[in-house]
Amino acid sequence: MAEKLNSMRLLERYSIPYTIHKYDPSAPDAVAVAAALDVPAAHVFKTLVVSGTGTRPLLAMIPADCQLHLKRLASLVGVKHLDLVPREVVERLTGLRIGGIGALALTTKRWASYLDESALDHSRIYVNAGQRGTMIGLAPTDLVKVVDATTAAIALRHGEVCNVPYLHDRGNKASSEE
Description:
This protein has five helices and eleven strands, in the order H-E-H-E-E-E-H-E-H-E-E-E-H-E-E-E. It has helices at 6-13, 30-37, 70-77, 87-94, 140-147; strands at 19-22, 44-51, 58-63, 67-68, 83-84, 113-116, 125-131, 134-138, 150-152, 155-157, 160-161. The strands form two sheets. Strands 1, 2, 3, 5, 6, 7, 8 and 9 form an eight-stranded mixed sheet that branches. A three-stranded antiparallel sheet has the order 4-10-11, with no helix packed on it. A hairpin with a 2-residue loop joins strand 7 and strand 8. The chain is globular. The chain starts with 5 loop residues before the first helix and ends in a 17-residue tail after the last strand.
């Protein structure tokens, strides 16, 4: 391994096992990253930076193929309204490039972190290591422990809460009942 990132050092400090997965950093989104890693999109978690009036920025980690349920997250945080932080502001706040944002790389910011509870359905999930082109595979319970994340149903897939793995994530065709 050529370069050890702060996120990797953090996991090693906690003696947490992880795997490193490289991909083409020009991948346009987290779904493309999942395809490049040859894993279901539901196992790759993108990290979004969110803020609202009177709140510090916070991190929301949701599956690659989902959208953030802003109203539900706002309710969890105890505010009326949250918004995604604009891209150019995210890079300035985090010091990381879009596509390289990861909660493990931002622990020194001490921002609240929220992880969609669907992560707990998997033995391993993939999160950004803090650099475009590098993902870390680890147990979701280990991620929760290290970043002190709150788990809750904060993601939407096709308008429905992402708390049940879809059949197509297991290689079968999804039914209309899901």
